[in-house]
Amino acid sequence: MTLAERLADALTADREPDFPYLTGDAPLYDSDDPPSEAAVLVAVTDRAEPGVILTQRTETMRKHPGQVAFPGGRVDPEDADAVATALREAEEEIGLLPAAVRVAGLADRYRTGTGYHITPVVGVVAPDLPLRPSEAEVASVFEVPLAFLLDPANHRDARAMWQGSERRYTEILWQDRRIWGATAAMIVNLSRRLRWT
Questions:
Q1: CB 106 within 8 A of CB 117
Q2: How many domains does the chain have?
Q3: pLDDT 10s per residue in the chain (197 long)?
Q4: What are the DSSP calls for the chain, one per residue?
Q5: What whole-number distance in Å separates Cα of residue 4 and Cα of residue 103?
Q6: Is residue 10 one of the residues assigned to a domain?
Q7: Domain that holds residue 98
């Protein structure tokens, strides 16, 4: 069974998680406006020990500067669906061509406190592709072992004050990188969905 087939089977398996999926930030987006649809690409490298491609946003970004994220963004009107959005954004942000991605399926959606409803698109890519980060958006592109990200022992509960109230979130520390917020929450959901062994 290929890596893409293993991921597709795990994403579509009808089973209850050991712990509930994380559905959104608390407090949830509080507005009469509907949330904006967005999608990210969870690009898994097809190697003996698969990895996940992540980006570190530039410090000059207006929103979430310096944070670690999956390539992705808001759904544009011309995008056919979440897959099209994730592939377009990955090409724009890191130079990953859509034809280089074998889509395995969709993971659990996540709603952010800033008004986005994010669909993670899981895909498999060849290892060591020559990626070109967009200088305006991406400070660096790096790969973290999939097994490390999915191991619940690496998911740390954290808390901080935000807009006058305490916010609880998950963070994952990898080398000198701090993965937290919506990205970490989507990784936790993947861990619970995939039950990777």
A1: no
A2: 1
A3: 899 999 999 998 876 666 666 666 655 555 667 788 999 999 999 999 999 999 998 766 666 656 899 999 999 999 999 999 999 999 999 999 999 999 999 999 998 877 889 999 999 999 999 999 998 889 899 999 999 999 999 999 887 766 676 677 889 999 999 998 899 999 999 998 887 64
A4: --HHHHHHHHHH-----SSPPP-B-SSPP--SSPPEEEEEEEEEE-SSS-EEEEEEE-TT-SSSTT-EE-SEEEPPTT--SHHHHHHHHHHHHH---GGG-EEEEE---EE-TTSEEEEEEEEEE-TT------TTTEEEEEEEEHHHHH-GGG-EEEEEEETTEEEEEEEEEETTEEEEHHHHHHHHHHHHHH---
A5: 7
A6: yes
A7: 3-153+183-194
Residue 165 within a domain: no
Q: 3-state class of 80 per DSSP?
A: coil
40: domain CATH number is 3.90.79.10
Q: Report if residue 85 sits inside a domain.
A: yes
Q: Has residue 169 been placed in a domain?
A: no
